[in-house]
Amino acid sequence: MITNKNEFGNFDYFNSEVKEKISNIIVLLKKKEIQYNIYYGYPIIDENDKKSYVKGIIILENKIILLYENQEEKEVYGSCLMNYLTLDNSLFKITRNYDKYVEEIDLFEFNEEYLNKVIKDKKIKFEIDEIRKINRAIQKAYNLSSDDDREVSSKDTLGYKLKERNTYIGNYDSTQFNMVESDIKTHQRIRGLAGSGKTILMLKKIARTHYMYPKLDLAFIFYTKSLKEDVIKKFKRFYKDYDRFNEPNMQKVKIYHAWGGKGNKGFYSEICELINCSPLTYGDLKNQTDPFDFACKELLMKLDENENNNFFDMIFIDEAQDFSLSFFKLCLKVLKKEVAEIKNRIKTGFLIYAYDELQSLREDVTIPTKNQIFGKNIECEDINLSISYRTPVEILVSAHAIGLGVYRKIENNEEISLVNFVDKKTLVDMGYINENGEINEGEKVKLKRIEEKKGIEIDKPLSFETENDEYTAVVENILELLENQDVKTQDIMIIDLDQHYLQRDYEEFSKIFYEKISEKEKLKNISLNLVDKNNPNRVKIENCITYTTIYRAKGNEANLVFVLNCDSISLSSRNSVARNKIFTAMTRAKWKVWLYGKEMNEYSYEIEKVKESDYKLEFIYPTKEQRKKIKQLGDKEEKDKSNVEEIAKIINSSGLDKSTIELLLKKTLEKMK
Q: Boundaries of each Helicase/UvrB N-terminal domain copy (predicted)?
């Protein structure tokens, strides 16, 4: 979202004189009580395929100012600006009267006297939406915009609120723009909280890189299988922001699931094919602690025996928190090591990865450090995306509170509530400000979001005696929204947290759903779409409501999210990965989330505490000793839970009936006495 004063660009390709002049112009703009956006130093390619770097485009409330150094730049930049604006028909009045709305001035003639004269000229005043559209045109951000075309029966319905929420003119903020529109000159690590646009920005970045350097071999890798169709679709759409008349060359841009499967080529299986070795499957390795980690290590050994492993110029990894160190090493191994001899010479051989540690759902994997991945002396640039554009503040803070254990009920004051520790730098990078000033060990912090609250309320988590009662309540709520609130099926996602009994839960839920919907003539063509390991790819289907696990939901989003069987995750425990699942489920929501289960008192307590704190995180920042204790206790509980899940898997696949299992457990407990 564009705010009042923004600088987009960098000084990397300017000499010291130009850099100093533009810096002075920015200082001058900041001094004035005006709204402005300035773009500088980002690359453009003219009609002769010559690359240049924009000296400056300044957008004021009443004028667009174009800065140049010589006549050639004046013509090239003016032509590019005109092309940008022409692509948006709604800006026709500007392109038709270009000289009226745009002033072109030599960079070194721009001074305070000139700026004052422009500011005082009140003959023209752009509307707010016009300024957004001008920024959108310059940013080539057309595919960030959204238009919700649903028909609504009343302004009082939830559907009307969603329509308003989902109709907007999309712009990048300065961090996002600078990330996308700059050349990659080193490895990059992108930390972004849920809803900050990590996947979109990575796809936009690879689309721009492919457009600027079409000879490069690029790979984009993700962890969640259900994302593939959506990722390819978005990439092709973002490429159109740069080249409206041609399609991307998908031989040069490979989009992979990390492992792959039957009929679905993955990054791992592709590398195996390239070096002519047989890929290992999950079935081959299901008894390994971490099957994919094992597969990557085996492949790394085979690559050591191979002479030429230079397959990709750059590799982009999304959902990087779910990959072990061996996977990163595998990616580094297959990167090209030399500078590519291509038009507009550019260095290659870089890894660009995006992650959010709070969305890690694997107990056996933690995101490796930069030193572990690259070594101590290899440069890797950090980019932090601290603003969430998807998830409302109220949901985001509540999800963070649960994910970190901020308001976890504790037995005594000596116990630490936190189950996930986030250091002070990361808290700031995540978009929090401490109202109490500096963050110091052993002192209370009061963290608030940098974004504004949306004025929504999280409903109290609902408790039920049985799953049947729970599912009946969920179905009735959904049907009421569909029938009377102008809500559409694609607005809704149902996430079942009880992954061990997904099939059983789904069968019970769908039975209730179809019984209830059969009574609704208007809704009879609506069905459920179970997204699981047998149907991993299509999350959204017309006239279908998605029912899925947290593993398939991750990376996807919906306006309205219903989280079922929350009681399968106890909030009294210190298992940080379990709490990460709640965090991830809640932050799939763009507008509203409901939590359902049996015995939901723990959830109600923590949600109520967040509300009482006015959606702020209040806790004592732990000392070094306390941080060590948090990790030790958390690791123990995660190991215990992992062992329990392994035993549960064996029991579930054994075919034993309930009475036999109970007898077996009884005998085991007797032996332990």
A: 190-329
Please say if the pLDDT value at position 45 is more than 70.
no
Beta strands 444-449 and 617-620 are antiparallel
Residue 176: predicted pLDDT: 92
**81 close to 57: Cβ distance less than 8 angstroms:** yes
3-state SS, residue 527: strand
One domain for residues 577 and 642: no
Which of 595, 583, 296 is CA-nearest to residue 462?
Answer: 595
Q: How far, in Å, are 259, 265, 465 from residue 270 at the CA level? A: 9, 7, 49
The phi, psi pair for 279, rounded to 5°, reads -75, 145
pLDDT at 234: 94
- 510: which residues sit within 8 A by CB, 6+ positions away? 528, 530, 547
Q: Is the CB of residue 373 less than 8 Å from the CB of residue 328? A: yes
Domain boundary among 385, 411, 439: 385
Q: What is the structure's pLDDT at 411?
A: 76
- Given a contact cutoff of 8 angstroms between Cβ atoms, the answer to whether 213 and 344 are in contact is yes
Q: Which residues contact 573 (CB under 8 A, 6 or more apart)?
A: 419, 637, 641
pLDDT tens per residue across span 542-573: 899 999 999 888 888 999 999 999 999 988 87
Are residue 237 and residue 352 in the same domain, yes or no? yes
Residue 377: count other Cβ atoms within 10 Å of its Cβ: 6
Based on the domain organization, do 136 and 17 belong to the same domain?
yes
Find, among 177, 134, 145, 241, the residue nearest to 6 by Cα: 177
Closest residue by Cα to residue 360 from 77, 575, 558? 575
- Residue 52: inside a domain, yes or no? yes
- Report the chain's mean pLDDT, rounded to a whole number: 89
Q: Is 59 left (phi over 0), alpha (psi -120 to 50) or beta?
A: beta
Domain boundary residue among 133, 165, 197? 165
pTM here? 0.83
- The tally of domains found in the chain comes to 4
- Residue for token digits 């969430």? 388
Looking at the DSSP assignment, which residues form a beta bridge with residue 60? none
Phi, psi values for residue 390, rounded to 5°: -90, -55
Residue 42 lies in a domain: yes
Q: Do 663 and 589 belong together in one domain?
A: no
Residue 401 has pLDDT above 90, yes or no: yes
User: And the tokens for 93?
Assistant: 């009045």
CATH code of residue 528: 3.40.50.300
Q: Are residues 330 and 197 in the same domain?
A: yes
- What the block records as the tokens of 523 is 């809704």
Q: In this structure, what are the phi and psi dihedrals at residue 263, rounded to the nearest 5 degrees?
A: 65, 10
- DSSP label at residue 554: T
The predicted-structure confidence for 319-365, as pLDDT tens digits, reads as follows: 999 899 999 999 999 999 765 444 455 789 999 999 988 887 776 67
Asked if the structure places residue 649 within a domain, the reply is yes
For residue 117, what is the enclosing H or E element?
A: helix 112-120
CA distances from 424 to 117, 416, 514, 554, 614 (A): 45, 17, 50, 26, 21
pLDDT in tens, 483-528: 999 999 999 999 999 988 899 999 999 999 999 999 998 898 999 9
Q: Which domain holds residue 112?
A: 5-144+161-165
> Is 350 found in the same domain as 227?
yes
DSSP summary character for residue 121:
-
More confident residue, 621 or 314: 314
| Residue burial 193-209, b: 16+ Cβ < 10 Å; e: rest | bbbbbbbbbbbbbbbbb
